[in-house]
Amino acid sequence: MSTTVGRGTLLAYGSLGFPIAVLSYPMTLFLHPHYAGELGLGLAAISTVLLVSRMTDFVTDPLMGWISDRTRSRFGRRKPYLAVGLPVMLLGIWRLFMPEPPVDIWYMLLWNTVVYLGWTIMVLPYNAWGAELSENYMVRARITAIRQVYVIAGLIGASVVIWVYQEWLDRADPGEVLTGIAWTLLAMLPVSVGLLLLLVPERAVDASPRQRASRQRVWWRELSSMLKIGPFRRMVYVALAIVIGEASRHAVLVFFMEDVLQAGDRIGRTFILYYLMGVAAIPLWQHLARRYGKHRALAVAMTHSALMVLATAFLGAGDYTTFLVFYVLKGASFGAFAYLPLAILADVVDVDTAVTRQKRAGMYFAVFGAIDKIGIAAGMFIALQVLNLTGYDPQVDPNAAGLWMIRLEYAVIPTFFFLMASLLVWNYPLTSERHARLVAALERREAREAQGRPRAAPSG
């Protein structure tokens, strides 16, 4: 396989990151305030819905990766599922983001699950596809960096929608924001998927005898064998720490700005500046990744995030400007911990290939995706359940206990998890040097097999 990827292919591949990011924004920030406030569902019930709808991903995500890895069609392994998942996701967005009252908790559970099912069918094969575009350590970092630029651009786009609704149209309630984002997604997703399917090639994979035999194995046995790979287990722990910390923040971010800072009408502009800083800082993390390794760059980003978040713990009404400074500075690390773990995971797939002689990128990204979604759901579930115990109600004036709990869940708890992630990844074993030796050994083995010579297992 070529170690280079053309600029046009990179730009076309990364483009789906834009609407996917637009979707992820309201799912974690505006959905629960809307259903809790305007639609009157309780925080405890909503947190349970978010957890239950995500728990299904622990089955569907690995299953989707298993199916995608074993698909053989004239259109490829990954492309057919983007076409299948698109209408599922569009239907879920329409029903979830633009509900017609009265709405109960079962309605939210159904359509939240449909959205995530469409996400699983589309995004997991998409991520695996990116890992297969190149085997080069830094080219993979570039692929995920380009994708992350689109992701951050999508987050900025969603922030602009919020800004327009709040400050231009004077419509600040989350329901109207969700409607604007929904129409944006219904227009953009079909275009993005169409461009991706037409312009990005997919690598043809010839299965080895062992790979063909492995198709008979059920997906949970595949999962068990994957967890025996040491670098993958380490990245699972790192990913959980990151997503639980971020989920705690996201669960209460709107409440923090509205009730603690009393600056709820400035959410849109705040997010625009945050994500612009994220885009501006990506070259810095690319430089650090080249010089010190992707794992060390990620560790620095997590430590930076922890310090910036902790600095906001004691802010209150009237401290919006101080909050904005620390929030935007934290945005510098956003791009790093959103794309570097995926770039590292692509290298782990090569370790698996060396050990098992299989091509299981779909399974790896599926499991990683399930962990990400379940970690977010668990973090949000715990944060909203504990906040509910203080008597906090988005429909009435907040009490003192609720305000302090929002501060704790926004600033202190994420700091602990970010520092944990930094410590876990600092001495990550799969460095660029070890990965280069691994890929060279794989290429020698494949060359020997192509010439009919005896097989020899590569060393890592």
Written account of the structure:
By secondary structure, this protein is mainly alpha-helical. It has one domain (13-198, 222-440): MFS general substrate transporter like domains (Growth Hormone, Chain: A, Up-down Bundle), CATH 1.20.1250.20. 78% of the residues lie in helices and 0% in strands. It contains 18 helices and no strands. It has helices at 7-14, 17-29, 31-36, 43-55, 57-70, 79-97, 105-131, 137-168, 174-199, 209-214, 219-226, 230-260, 267-292, 294-310, 320-356, 361-389, 400-426, 432-450. The radius of gyration is 22 Å and the shape is globular.
Topology:
Blueprint: H1 7-14, H2 17-29, H3 31-36, H4 43-55, H5 57-70, H6 79-97, H7 105-131, H8 137-168, H9 174-199, H10 209-214, H11 219-226, H12 230-260, H13 267-292, H14 294-310, H15 320-356, H16 361-389, H17 400-426, H18 432-450
CATH superfamily: MFS general substrate transporter like domains
Estimate nothing, just give the exact number of structural domains. 1
Describe the main β-sheet briefly: none
User: From the 3D coordinates, which CATH architecture would you assign?
Assistant: Up-down Bundle
CATH topology: Growth Hormone, Chain: A
Q: What shape does the CA trace take?
A: globular
Number of strands: 0
Order of helices and strands: HHHHHHHHHHHHHHHHHH
Structural class: mainly alpha
Uncertain ranges: 208-216
CATH class: Mainly Alpha
Count of helix runs: 18
Overall pLDDT metric: 85
Proportion of residues in extended strands:
under 5%
Helix content class: over 70%
* Gyration radius over CA: 22 Å
Query: What is the terminal separation in angstroms?
Result: 20 Å
